[in-house]
Design brief:
The complex is a heterodimer of chains A (about 475) and B (about 190). Chain A is mostly helical and about 475 residues long. Chain A has 4 domains: about 100 residues, Arc Repressor Mutant, subunit A (Orthogonal Bundle); about 160 residues; about 30 residues; about 90 residues. Chain A contains 18 helices and 5 strands. In chain A, strand 4 and strand 5 form a beta hairpin. In chain A, helix 7 runs parallel beside helix 11, helix 9 crosses helix 13 and helix 17 crosses helix 18. The longest helix of chain A has about 30 residues. Chain B contains 8 helices and 7 strands, in the order H-E-E-E-H-H-E-E-H-H-H-H-E-E-H. In chain B, the strands form 3 sheets. A 3-stranded antiparallel sheet of chain B has the order 1-5-4. Chain B has a two-stranded antiparallel sheet with strand order 2-3. Chain B has a two-stranded antiparallel ribbon with strand order 6-7. The longest helix of chain B has 24 residues. Chain B is globular and about 60 Å long. The chains are: A mainly alpha (about 475), B alpha+beta (about 190). At the A-B interface, helix 9, helix 12, helix 13 and helix 14 of A face helix 1, strand 4, strand 5, helix 4 and helix 6 of B.
């Protein structure tokens, strides 16, 4: 008997090799079925395990085994038909895979939307006789039912929009051959019209009508937005403002969904009016855009370094403007021959000579305006070094704090720079009986009105290798 | 007997101007947009390059470059002869291609013939720019193509290199160089390449 995995483990493996399920769902959708053919699944698994190592192959075979799938409750039923066994996967599992692969989204059909609408009407009528009392379980359940219905409806529509926004790809696929051949174009045009019209009538139009706030339904029934409004009013009258607000937010989300679908509708309309040339251009742009999108998709993996698209293959096939870039031009030395140029040079040389004569400290800094302070800083540092040499040290957990205290007592006009100078001097000190160890603990000191956060440095006796 | 010196036949200032533009990463087009007169006109630098192409090719070869001529779009650009940093150069080509493709895709998806994109009095306008900027997916793709500031960056990149010309603060059209790329895509698609 093969090993059984828990539900979460099985699901993990399913998700680690998503192509297997994608392939099965695609086949299932093509066959207009609700069940996955066991043999199709087996073939898909065989295809995908081929390049894997033996142990991993075994792991996959066990996970995708029908017994394991049904044991883990991922398959809820097995239907034995004439042409083999068919597996009914849990709807939630299929939803996850459809979520991960946009091409597997199923467009919402008119019938599905109508049944959703009917259950909203039903909820609304039940609300008429509800008590609106917090301790009435019937009322609580009804409210839960309404919000759940709205949540589901919204995610259904959102997925539908994503599916519709891929319309460009679909139109390209349907008309690729037609646009490429000028002779057969008129002939193709008819079938293309039919296909496009079908797509439009069966999928785009129902959703568009469903979300159109101005639409009137047969039999005087109220449309989605009117129904929502009535439900909201009932809660409002009964001072259930929280729930009324929540429903209002759904209302807004539904109206936001209308615009993108309208955009798709316009795109289809434009498409149907195109000449062959226009259609060819449209298809060429769309096909290349899909290639770029595939490159982009590679940047959305969990690898954080992988932020930019790799265009080398795309460029290699287009061969356009390869190697174009800015080039550095040679820069020239700015020699001059005019009198003023030489005067400038001599003036500069004289200035520097006089500086050397007047104050040898300026050798340490070429910026003349800083001369005074840098000279003072040098003197100060030298004083600090002498003082440091005279200081006794012992092992401590926070040498910076120790120095900070001693310097504060000893030095007039003690500044942060002094502490820094002292620390740098200590850390570069050779042949010292101690060594400095930087820790990962943080601490802070205050000098005047400023606080400084630092990493603590320990002072420990140094162990010299040639001690013995 | 003295041999003919090809340098004598070219005005040095013009050659220097060509060098300047090429090293700035621009393409030199047959037809250039005159911003002051708002019209396309013949580019004398292109004519010069074209008439003395042997001279210029060997001139640039001697200093380590290759003068590339694109006959589909009638333009010249400069590329290093033995490019050590081919990656960066290809990155630029890719950026140009991605930005042009997105513009082309937007144009055809809004029901217009791409030929309008190449015309000075049509091209890309404020409304187009607004709708390009609103497309979230386009924005993400531009970022992944290393246009960190999105469309402003991309349009700037294209105009600086003469793949597009800017006709006013909020209008642009695609030059013959940009057109060559989009037409190449359409032709390749038609021939199913």
């Amino acid at each position: 008997m093969k090993k059984h995995f828990s539900t979460i483990e099985t699901l993990k493996i399913l998700l680690a090799y998503p192509r297997v399920m994608y392939q099965c769902i695609e086949k299932m959708d093509q066959a207009d079925d609700r069940l996955i053919d066991e043999s199709v699944l087996a073939v898909a698994v065989r295809q995908h395990i081929e390049p894997l190592e033996a142990t991993e192959q075994k792991r996959l075979l066990s996970a995708f085994d029908t017994d394991n799938l049904s044991h883990a409750n991922i398959v809820s039923d097995i239907d034995k038909r004439e042409n083999g066994r068919f597996l009914l996967f849990q709807e939630s599992i299929l939803t996850i895979f459809r979520l991960c692969e946009a091409s597997l989204y199923k467009e919402v059909t008119d019938a599905k939307l109508k049944s959703r609408m009917a259950s909203l009407w039903d909820a609304e009528s039940r609300l008429e006789s509800a008590t609106f009392a917090e301790n009435d379980p019937d009322y609580i359940e009804l409210t839960e039912d309404i919000t759940e219905q709205l949540g589901q409806l919204l995610s259904l529509l959102r997925n539908n929009i994503i599916a519709m926004e891929r319309i460009g790809e679909k139109l390209e696929g349907m008309t690729a051959d037609a646009s490429r051949s000028p002779d057969k174009f008129p002939e193709y045009r008819q079938t293309m019209f039919e296909k496009t019209t079908h797509l439009f009538d069966r999928h785009i139009k129902p959703t568009l009508t469903f979300l159109d706030p101005k639409v009137r339904l047969l039999g005087g029934k109220s449309n989605l937005f009117d129904t929502l409004k009535q439900i909201r009013e009932r809660y409002r009258i009964n001072s259930k403002n929280n729930i009324a607000d929540q429903i209002l937010r759904y209302d807004i989300s539904f109206s936001n969904a209308f615009l993108p679908i309208q955009k798709v509708e316009r795109q289809v309309d434009h498409f149907l009016r195109k000449t062959r040339m226009g259609m060819l251009q449209y298809n060429a742009m769309e096909a290349n855009y899909q290639m770029i999108k595939a490159l982009y998709a590679k940047t959305t993996t969990s690898n954080l370094k992988n932020r930019f698209m790799d265009g080398s293959e795309f460029c290699a096939s287009s061969k356009f403007a390869l190697g174009i870039k800015q080039h550095n031009r040679p820069t020239c030395y700015q020699f001059g021959e005019s009198t003023s140029y030489y005067e400038n040079i001599f003036a500069e040389i004289e200035l520097r000579l006089s500086l050397i004569d007047s104050n040898h400290q300026s050798l340490f800094s070429s910026d003349s305006y800083k001369d005074e302070t840098s000279g003072k800083q040098l003197a100060r540092a030298e004083m600090l070094y002498e003082w440091l040499a005279s200081q006794p040290f012992r092992p401590t957990k926070d040498v910076i704090y120790v120095l900070h205290n001693r310097l504060g007592d000893w030095l007039d006009g003690y500044q942060f720079a002094d502490l820094l100078t002292a620390m740098i001097h200590l850390s570069h000190k050779s042949k010292w009986d101690y060594k400095l160890i930087t820790t990962n603990q943080f601490s802070y000191i205050t000098i005047d009105d400023e606080a400084f956060i630092y990493r603590r440095r320990k002072l420990e006796p140094a162990v010299h290798q040639n001690d013995d | 007997m003295m041999t003919d010196n090809p340098f004598d036949k070219v005005v040095a200032e013009d050659s220097a101007e060509i060098y300047k533009q090429l090293t700035q990463g621009k393409v030199i087009l047959k037809q250039h947009y005159n911003k002051l007169l708002h019209q396309l006109e013949e580019n004398p630098l292109y004519t010069l390059l074209f008439n003395h192409s042997t001279h210029f090719s060997s001139l640039y070869q001697h200093i380590g470059y290759q003068l590339v001529f694109n006959d589909e779009g009638s333009f010249y650009y400069l590329k290093e002869l033995h490019d050590q940093s081919i990656d960066e150069a290809d990155k630029n080509a890719f950026k140009i291609q991605v930005a042009l493709l997105l513009i082309g895709k937007h144009f055809s998806a809004t029901g217009r013939n791409l030929n309008l994109l190449y015309q000075q009095d049509a091209g890309l306008n404020e409304i187009d720019l607004e709708s390009l900027k609103q497309d979230h997916e386009f924005g993400e793709i531009l970022k992944a193509a290393q246009f960190s500031k999105g469309w402003d960056d991309a349009l700037d990149f294209l105009t600086k290199r003469n793949f597009m010309f800017q006709t006013s603060l909020t209008s642009w059209f695609v030059s013959d160089a940009g057109k060559a790329f989009l037409e190449h895509l359409v032709n390749a698609y038609e021939n199913n390449e």
